[in-house]
Amino acid sequence: MLCPRHGAGTDPTRLVGRTISRIVASWHVYEGERSEVPLDVWLIDSEGDSTRISTGSDGCLIVESAAPHEPYDMGEWGRIEVGDDLGEHLFLRHLGDTVARVSECVSPGIGRTHLEIGFGDGDVDGDRVRADCWMGDLRLTR
Fold first, then answer.
1. 94 part of a folded domain
2. CA-CA distance, 84 to 56, in Å (whole number)?
3. Angle CA 85–89–94, to nearest 5
4. Which of 10, 13, 108, 121 is most buried, judging by how many CB atoms fall within 10 Å of its CB?
5. What is the pTM of this model?
6. Domain range spanning residue 121?
7. In this structure, is residue 3 part of a structural domain?
């Protein structure tokens, strides 16, 4: 199923067997306070491909091939910072790890609702990251 607004995006299973060589994230900063969770995460793999994980305004999870964008100012609404080391999130613990498995869930009329990326050779707590859209925000959990 495709997201009616954003299409199918990229096939995240292409990450399997690739090492995560760089991780970039974007954060909303307003009045000096950074958002608790990143707005976007880009996984740059050993092949040089960049996979962006974000949320759509319609509640879908966007997974697409896209390079990180530049930071930008939104005037009175704050700014968007983009970088490698701006804040903590669950993907950071897997920098240098190889993706072992990927699964996703798709809902009719919405599109992709969550994505799970597993590292290592088991289903041990902490060896995977689940991305989904929670009340419009990107949520990363184990």
1. yes
2. 22
3. 85
4. 10
5. 0.89
6. 12-141
7. no
Within-domain flag for 43:
yes
Q: With respect to residue 111, please indicate whether it lies within any of the assigned structural domains.
A: yes
d(CA 58, CA 50): 23
Residue showing tokens 């307003």: 30
pLDDT tens digits for range 79-94: 999 998 777 888 999 9
Cα–Cα distance for residue pair 43/22, rounded to 1 Å: 6
Note the pLDDT tens digit of each residue in 99-120: 999 998 877 777 788 999 999 8
Query: How many domains in the chain?
Result: 1
Measured distance CA(110)–CA(36) in Å, rounded: 25
Instruction: Quote the Cα angle for 14-15-18, to 5°.
Output: 120
The residue type of 64 is E
Residue 28: other Cβ atoms inside 10 A: 18
Which candidate, 49, 53, 50, 44, places its Cα nearest to that of 21?
44
> Tokens at residue 30, please?
């307003």
